[in-house]
Write a structure and sequence with these properties.
By secondary structure, the protein is mostly beta strands. The protein has one helix and nine strands, in the order ββββαβββββ.
Length: about 110
């Protein structure tokens, strides 16, 4: 990866946890911001998606690359970029198996 490729700032949010309400049910807490991180954001055209990931990913997708120390669980986290919320559609991919960068699809 070239220098200064991670030039977009994203926010990673936790969707919130289920908490017992004391009356036999549960409630979901408000989303919690886990941090701001720099990322490389690339939009993928439909041909790239079919070739690399199969047909199970939506037509217009975005690939995000972050440093490996960023903790992200696709089931519990979402991304905010320029005020819009995006959900993670796949698992984290270890770029080139070097443990330096992780990629995922929005």
């Amino acid at each position: 990866m070239r220098a200064r490729d991670l030039n977009k700032q994203i926010e990673i949010w936790n969707t919130g946890a289920k908490v017992d309400d004391g009356f036999g049910g549960s409630t979901v807490t408000a989303p919690v911001k886990e941090g701001d991180y720099y990322a490389k954001i690339v939009s993928l055209d439909p041909g790239t998606i079919e070739k690399a990931y199969g047909g199970s990913i939506p037509q217009r997708s975005i690939r995000v690359t972050v440093r490996a120390y960023v903790e992200l669980n696709p089931a519990n986290h979402f991304i905010k970029y320029r005020g819009k919320e995006f959900s993670v559609n796949g698992a984290l991919i270890n770029e080139d198996f070097e443990d330096r960068f992780k990629s995922f699809i929005l």
